[in-house]
Specification:
Helix content: 40-55%
Number of strands: 23
CATH topology of the largest domain: Rossmann fold
Strand content: 15-25%
Shape: rod-shaped
Bound molecules: adenosine-5'-diphosphate-glucose
CATH superfamily of the largest domain: Glycogen Phosphorylase B
Number of domains: 3
Length: about 750
């Protein structure tokens, strides 16, 4: 408010000065007007009395003094005298001042050659006040009879001038005040508009006319940050930690995910720690090790309850203890409804185009809502500030972001959807689609693997929600809340720490072939998955069959090892798949057995990460045949495992990974013929070409690793927080918030 006050003072002073100058000018002007007016009145008075004057003058009737007295009835005319043309006094009213004798006046007029008697005036300051003298000829038919001198009272002029000055000053004051108020109001409105525009520009919601500018600025900032990124080198745990410290002031991270990174299970040999087969855990665990904080998850292991403290927490990783896992307990009913039911029989098939019918039960939904609330409450218990950073993971927690936001309005909530987001039409199948989308929009950022998934999400928001979509700024705006929707292609740690203790590739090749009872020179393909119908395991085995059918040279030389970790076995569809995969593997093996060859090695069990990586290293090719997959980290793990730069990746075009790993042999897994051609090409590929392709993919995965994925999300979150804080600051300066609160 200081600026407007100063401005007001300057404005009033300037107007004051202006009023002073104006007053002087106006005084001289009004004086001129009054004098003219006086002269006119005198002429009129003398003109009106002319007949009487002439008669009295020519008849010398002695009433000339009376005629003069008639003239002085005008309140401004004090006295009058009649003079001959030779300067003699002919008659005068009482009180006529002898100072102004006829002769002296005539002499004055005669001295001033340019002035006629009829136009003569003179002002004089007398002790009684200022007076004006004016001369008027008295004409008959012949030469003038004489002239009349009138003495006017000018003291009223002073009074008038005073009144005029007062009025003028008052008018200037009122005018100045009015102008100042109008200016202030305009300035305030402009300031408000400007700050609102600035706020909106900062928060990404710039008015239309500023949008090109904001776009350019954003593009520049993006380019600069990309350049800065290249300058600062590859992303690693150190850099991620530094980013967290620099941009988020070391604030700890709270992750919410259904699956925990370390499961304690009871075995005949005591309690063991297991690493779950989960892409989400594979990606996020290294991030958590780098950042520290709390990972809130369902405690599903048989020994989980025995290993937590009184607050249901356990420090992990074992031996390192760099962060905490907070376990949330679910009843069997809750788990059935929320996890197996709504999440995996409803949302999972809804989001994947893999020909499984989504099943939506009202009871499952009820549990889904209740469990989301339960986890949201646990998250709120784990935060240590009013504006914590919370990473919500996956389709199990679509409602949690809004529930958390309700309790922690200032939280930065980054939600990552690890599976595809389907098109709007498909989303419409879900009876609770509005609730799901609205829940997600409680986030500050919603991340997907690809731009396509983001576009699908925007379409769904457009179809089912009351909101404004700013595709330019990648945001959904609901009232005062803004959610950024961005692609963040997920990845794996680089280098993979599990590789550290593993033997060289040659040794892995030899030992694995030995363990599987295969010849030392056997060609080996691998498939590594959770047993899930979206992974296209049946189609993969069919493609191997097709290979042997169409390329006889590989009969008796090629084997395919499928590691399949049982998953969601409580669900019929998964149990059916388990049975189908076994049947298909048996059928193929039986078919080729007559050639003395059982090409499929089906290992249906969970393998700890070092075992998985040994297979990657031992293989000649890895076939990822997902029918639909958000990203697929197996493809990236295979690349990471091959420090010998050998081996070929055959990759489904329906994975997010196919967009990054273009040096893979990309296939349509439904097309067995094409897939078998790719398998044959992989097995026939010269080592130099293998190395060239692998080299390029390794460079890509090493650079676009999971630290970069997390780093970019956190940097975006920090940027968002900065903007929010700044617009909050501006709001406190701005007189009022706008209706949309932007
Ligand atoms: P997932 O569907 O779990 O992930 P994926 O990305 O391939 O799929 O990750 C699977 C993980 O489990 C890998 O780390 C792999 O090594 C491990 N794994 C597979 N089979 C195993 C076995 N038999 N034994 C032990 N471990 C095994 C979801 C989405 C993906 C997305 C990830 C990450 O479905 O599209 O890439 O999240 O966002």
């Amino acid at each position: 408010m200081r600026l407007p006050l100063k401005f007001l003072a300057v404005l009033l002073t300037s107007l004051g000065l202006l009023a002073g100058g104006g007053y002087a000018m106006l005084t001289s002007m009004t004086r001129e007007w009054f004098e003219k007016d006086l002269r006119l009145r005198s002429q009129l008075a003398v003109g009106a009395a002319r007949m009487g004057l002439v008669e009295a003058w020519t008849n010398r009737s002695g009433v000339l003094a009376e005629r003069l007295t008639d003239i002085t009835r005008d309140e401004r005319i004090m006295s009058a005298a009649a003079c001959s043309m030779t300067g003699d006094l002919v008659a005068a009213t009482d009180g006529y001042l002898r100072d102004f004798s006829c002769r002296s006046v005539l002499e004055r007029i005669q001295r001033d050659v340019a002035t006629e008697i009829d136009a003569w005036t003179m002002t004089s300051d007398l002790p009684s006040g200022r007076v004006q003298l004016s001369g008027h000829l008295v004409l008959d038919d012949g030469p003038p009879l004489g002239f009349v001198l009138l003495v006017h009272d000018l003291s009223f002029l002073g009074r008038r001038e005073e009144a005029t000055r007062d009025l003028l000053l008052l008018a200037f004051f009122v005018l100045a005040l009015g102008a100042a108020l109008v200016t202030l109001l305009a300035a305030k409105l402009a300031w408000r508009g400007w700050t609102r525009d600035l706020q909106r520009a900062l928060s990404g919601d710039a008015p239309r006319e500023f949008q090109p500018l904001v776009r350019d600025v954003r593009a520049l900032v993006d380019r600069l940050s990309r350049e800065a990124e290249t300058r600062t080198g590859p992303w690693d745990p150190e850099r991620l930690r530094a980013t967290l410290l620099q941009h988020l002031k070391g604030e700890r991270v709270v992750i919410l995910a259904n699956r925990e990174p370390y499961i304690h299970v009871k075995t005949p040999h005591g309690i063991r720690v297991q690493h779950p087969a989960s892409g989400l855990v594979t990606a996020l665990e290294p991030v958590m090790r780098a950042c520290s904080g709390v990972w809130v998850a369902h405690g599903g292991g048989s020994a989980d309850r025995e290993t937590v403290d009184t607050r249901d927490r356990v420090a992990v990783p074992p031996g390192e203890e760099s962060y905490l896992v907070r376990r949330v307990w679910l009843t069997e009913e809750e788990e059935n409804g929320y996890y197996y039911g709504f999440s995996n029989e409803g949302l999972w098939p809804l989001c994947h185009i893999a020909h499984a019918r989504p099943i939506f039960r009202a009871d499952d939904w009820k549990h889904y809502v209740a469990v989301n609330r339960k986890f949201a409450a646990a998250v709120c218990e784990e935060v240590d500030s009013e504006d914590p950073i919370i990473l919500v993971q996956d389709y199990h927690f679509a409602l949690a972001p809004r529930m958390i936001r309700e309790r922690l309005p200032r939280a930065t909530i980054l939600t990552f959807w690890h599976i595809p987001w389907p098109n709007g039409e498909r989303v419409g199948i879900c009876p609770w689609r509005e609730e799901i989308i609205s829940g997600l929009l409680g986030s500050s950022i919603v991340g997907f693997h690809t731009q396509q998934h983001c576009n699908n999400f925007f379409d769904a928001v457009d179809a089912f929600m009351e909101s404004r979509i700013d595709r330019e700024a990648h945001a959904v705006i609901q009232g005062s809340h803004r959610t950024l929707v961005r692609p963040y292609p997920i990845s794996i740690e680089w280098p993979v720490h599990w590789l550290a203790g593993l033997p060289p590739v040659e040794e892995c090749r030899r030992s694995i072939r030995q363990e599987l009872g295969l010849p030392a020179d056997a060609l080996l393909g691998v498939g590594i998955d959770r047993l899930d119908y979206t992974k296209g395991i049946e189609e993969r085995l069919q493609a191997v069959d097709e290979l042997l059918t169409r390329y006889p040279e590989f009969r008796g030389r090629f084997w395919f090892a499928q590691l399949a970790a049982p998953s969601r076995t409580k669900i019929d569809r998964y149990r059916e798949l388990n049975a189908r995969v076994e049947t298909v593997a048996n059928e193929i093996n039986e078919k080729w057995q007559k050639h003395g060859h059982k090409p499929i090695v089906l290992l249906r069990s969970h393998h700890e990460p070092p075992a998985v990586f040994r297979y990657y290293r031992a293989a000649d090719l890895c076939y990822v045949s997902s029918l639909h997959d958000g990203m697929n980290l197996v493809a990236k793990e295979f690349v990471a495992a091959r420090d010998d730069e050998k081996g070929v990746l055959v990759l489904s075009q329906f994975t997010g990974a196919a967009r990054d790993l273009t040096e893979a042999l990309v296939v349509n897994p439904y097309d067995f013929r094409q897939a078998s051609d790719a398998l044959a090409a992989a097995l026939n590929m010269p080592v130099a070409e293998q190395q060239e392709r692998m080299h390029s993919m390794r460079r890509l995965v090493s650079e676009f690793n999971v630290y970069r994925w997390a780093g970019r999300m956190l940097v975006d979150a920090a940027e968002l927080r900065r903007r929010e804080r700044m617009s909050g600051r501006l709001s406190s300066v701005a007189p009022q918030r706008t209706t949309d609160g932007a």
